[in-house]
Queue: 2 jobs
Job 1
Amino acid sequence: MYTYSEFDAAYVAKRNAEFRAQVERRIDGSLTEDEFKPLRLMNGLYLQLHAYMLRVAVPYGTLNARQMRQLAMIAERWDKGYGHFTTRQNIQFNWPELRDVPDILDALAEVEMHAIQTSGNTIRNVTADHFAGAAADEIADPRPVAELIRQWSTDHPEFQFLPRKFKIAVTGSPNDRAVTAAHDIGLRIVERGSEIGYQVLVGGGLGRTPMIGKVIAEFLREEDLLPYLEAIVSVWNLLGRRDNKYKSRIKITVHEHGIEEIRALVDDRFAELRPAFTGIDQEMLATIRAEFAAPVFRDAPLDAFDAAYDKDPAFRSWVDTNLTDHRAPGYAIAEISLKAHGATPGDATAEQMRVMADLAERYGHDELRVSHEQNIVLPHVHKSDLPALHAELQRHGLATANIGRISDIIACPGMDYCALATARSIPIAQEIATRFDELKIENEIGDLKIKISGCINACGHHHVGHIGILGLDRAGVENYQITLGGDHTEAARVGQRTGPGFSAEEIVPAVERIVDAYLILRDSADERFIDTFARVGMDPFKTALYEPEKEVRADAA
Amino acid sequence: MPRPFTPKVVTANALLEGDVVYLREDDGWTRELADADVLTDEAHAQVRLLDAERRPGEVVGVYLADVAPTEAGPEPTHLREDFRRTGPSNYFHGKQAERQGSEV
């Protein structure tokens, strides 16, 4: 993985010293809160409902064991012994005190991490496929270009005061696991003949006005990528609405001006900018790429794996749900679920972080990934090591076999922590997971993505959940709207609202009625929820939700 | 007829800890809603708010929150304020834990 150059280390150290001085000046009264707030946000520090919250960048979700251990240390020393992994592959600490934050940032810098541009109207942490460099279906590893974009966007002088935040995601695989269509810019690595290039999507986003990204360039050559990105952000920086924060994101700019006009403006700007990129970026990319060289994969017999698979039902169940095909023979991508039934989605204790770090070191070529689905990935594990790995996970409450299942729920922090939230998300996720665990029908249901947001800003990606849940405040009472048919993959689609919302007490039974209806409606156990929904449409599910006394039939409409 | 004024408390987050605080009658800050000064007059509430806003070295984000006065002290009228005076529901952290700590 990428290691800091002298320049990176010096830059982060300088920023940390600068922020330390700013915190001191805030505390001694030299800075007002109005002056301090943009400064703290540039360094990832929010003030939430009960405390400050520090959001730490995990670039494209990649961590090594040493970094994960340092996060554990920070959680114990300055927080309440846990961290929360987010839908943008970052980690948040929910309880730091203002005076401690400069020390936390210094501790992060020791392991080449920081919190720069995890907030504010800047280009945020670049996210990528969490299976990058490992997936069997990958065209090319998206991390080198994600790192190049990180370097280009960090402290970019033109892009420090954008109309609003700006998010970029990259996938190197046609199976989009990075939700690229819901980003301000989505990059998809594609092949044309033997040449590798980029399909560029622009103007995607969730939030109050969900939009699926539109293709602005079908095939961009690699050497044109940075100037083209700079052209897009530059065009939006001028056109973007600064008068109304609900209309400031690039999705609105693209929507208001139309993709053709935006494309023409971007092409003009690109023509101006392109000569300034004389190839140094490509030299840097080549250097970065070398740092992401694949580990040396070993060849070993699979007898131990096969024996455990035949003998141990718990191991078999975990293998069947939590593994993904690896590109190297004998290897697997192993996902560690942070969704134990009834637990807070995305939370890991300091002890669990250390266990995952140890396992990555022992069995996983020292690599960990944070997925946007709030789980941890060990991207390179030889199958012969999986029985021992699984046994260790079991000892620490990390062996939940539910990846992609109904209890593998994305949930934002919601009203339990977030100052913007209008309702709670976490308890709803906990109750749904607990309920379906009791029913013991998770495996029968199969692939089903529930995503929950505690407000319209949609951090919980509810618009692209197969079942999306949005928590709102209706006259001081939590109310939950349901959407169905959302899709977060390369076939991205925004879900449709079912109708009136449900109270906190009613929402879990409502989800159960949807699932019961699906089990009746599907034409076979192989037809996933999302496919059944596409085939039968909304009406039978509406019947199940709002007229439960009626029989659910596919032709009910 | 003017609308009746909903009683209020002055609330904010402490600058250093980020913890929720309420303004007491003696101008000190308390961590407990029960000890907050309940303001029943609109003009008085606005003056108290302005005074509190002039203390940026102590608190951040000062505002007036609606409460319902009861014999046990002011009670929140909105869910959000109920969370602010209690702590999160997924862990026994924040004020609920501190309260228990101080009783032990």
Job 2
Amino acid sequence: MIIRQLSVFLENRAGRLTELTGILADNDINISAFSIADTTDFGVLRVITGNPELAEKVLKEQGFAVKITDVIGIVMHNKPGALHHALQILTDNGISIEYMYAFASSDDRATAVIRTDSPKKAIEVLQLHEMELLKTGDVYQI
Amino acid sequence: MIWNEHHECMDRQQLTELQGERLRDMVERIYFNVPFYRTRLQEMGIEPGDIRSLDDLKKLPFTTKQDLRDNYPFGLFAVPQHDVVRLHASSGTTGKSTVVGYTHNDIMMWSEVVARSLTMAGITRDDIVQVAYGYGLFTGGLGVHYGAEKIGASVIPISGGNTKKQLQLLEDFGSTAIACTPSYAAYLGEAIMEEKLDRSKIKLKAGIFGAEPWTEEMRTQIQHLLGLKAYDIYGLSEVIGPGVSMECACQRGMHIFEDHFIPEIIDPETCEVLPYGTLGELVFTTVTKEAMPLMRYRTRDLTRLHAETCDCGRTLVRMEKCVGRSDDMLIIRGVNVFPSQVESVLLEMSETKPHYLLVVDRENNLDTLEIQVEVEEQFFSDEVKELEGLRKRISGNLTSLLGLHASVRLVEPGTIERSMGKAQRVVDKRKLK
């Protein structure tokens, strides 16, 4: 249930992101979802991929600062109120969110990727409320 | 105008004799009162009696900034602490600053040389002098302050910064002279333009600018912006502070007050004394200072000396603007910065590695310092608030050690160039030459 997300430090420099996507493409690594947190000087790229270990290895070889971060993915119907319902469960259980991003897939469903300081507890309470969670194997199918 | 015609226009032969007498006295004082100097002189087999005239100066050993650090804080003082009436300090490379002490007589001597300097800029008791150098451990503010008071001018001890207030007092008080760093002078000039102040209310006629390197282009610009004549003043806290040398109205170099500070130019590699007109490292011996006399102190500043009598009538030698340093010290907004200081901060912090680059630039005429630090894997967090927190911690630690604001930029690992020999630690984009 815990998804291994790839986090990469990037300088705000023209072409830097393209270099990174080039390395992933050359190694046949598919990007299932991503987001970028940016500040004036630098950005942090977060990537969900089917093979985070390989991605980490090839990027480190090219000198990137890379880190694997544990996140969870909540799979919801793509309809009004679904995200609110999921977040309400986390809030009611005192789980705070460091950051999140979401993507929708073609089957009318959406996934919210969430980074929290207590992923295990989050999984527990979400399952208690019969929420569907993204599994590692699912990532290949996205 | 000459403040002290007797000493500033002295016959060279007479001056040499005076310097010799004072040198003899100074060597005796340090030999008997400063264990560090006594040991060093004894090691070279020199006794006070061996120093009879100025010619013997070259026999004496050199003193370096490292010697000052090794004897931190009061190890080089030649008088009991109860005779010391003032302490100043400048930032040092490893967190330890360089401390200098003054007796009452030293403060009087300092006031005298600053009075001579201000007089060169045409300042008299009828002037209102706005002292916009920093007051505090830095010698700039108080140094100029005492000299201006000695002349009898009206002194405004406003200290550095607070541009709005500076402009208001320029208008309201009608300051006729200002003392600050040249970059701050240019900044004030631009602020006057931006605020669209009534130029007829600005009464400035002279500016005394120093504590950092500047160019003839900056002089032209400052003179244009502020409508004054810009004068260059030189000094360093180890020797006394501002007022070691100063430009007269002829502006053909800065006259060194040789009756107090004996200059030499040496080859920084061989330490051989070089003749007038040759580029080399400037060395000073302070012959009248009581609290902390300095014997052949290596300033690391590179310049030339000229001995021909100046059109102003002064016989004192003139030094050119310093063209650089014989070490890696940077002068940023008047503050001395060594790359090794940055390294010591990064080494002390467990999250960082000492891969860094100092980028010095000048924006709107103010020096800026950016320090690029590599983000290593072990301290890379994927949360922006953690990275921002790290950036602020590094910046805070650097700012407090350097005594000047340093902005920190996190860069990717491996992007700062490693070289096989001496690492390139500094990029100075300021155009000074």
